[in-house]
Amino acid sequence: MVSKELGRGALRFEHQLVIDPTVCDGYGYCVELLPSNLIFDDWGYPIIKERYVDDEHLELAYRAVKLCPKLAFRVNKIRGR
Ligand code: SF4
Predict the structure, then answer these.
(1) Rounded to the nearest whole angstrom, what is the distance from the C-alpha of residue 48 to the centroid of ligand 1?
(2) Model-level pTM?
(3) For residue 50, is it within any domain?
(4) Could you tell me if the CB of 73 is within 6 A of ligand 1?
(5) 9-60 tens-digit pLDDT
(6) Is the residue at 2 inside a domain?
(7) Among the atoms of ligand 1, which is closest to the Cα of residue 31?
(8) Higher confidence at residue 7 or residue 59?
(9) How many domains does the chain have?
């Protein structure tokens, strides 16, 4: 999803969710905050069902970054297509 446009010659950014499975402990804060993008697997670990975060859910995504106790959850801001 395009999250920001700045007039002519617009700069476009997308926000991608990234979870490091090597450190995630499955506390699930991220899934509870972002059910639009994440689901639990059978063992209570998060699965990304939609990698791109739309503007409407961006604040929640960054809140999940702050709340993740293992620093496993990130939002990467990248140049859009
Ligand atoms: S909040 Fe962090 S540790 Fe908990 S399930 Fe999400 S990514 Fe894993």
Answers:
(1) 12
(2) 0.84
(3) yes
(4) yes
(5) 778 899 999 999 999 999 899 999 999 999 999 999 999 999 999 999 999 9
(6) no
(7) 6
(8) 59
(9) 1
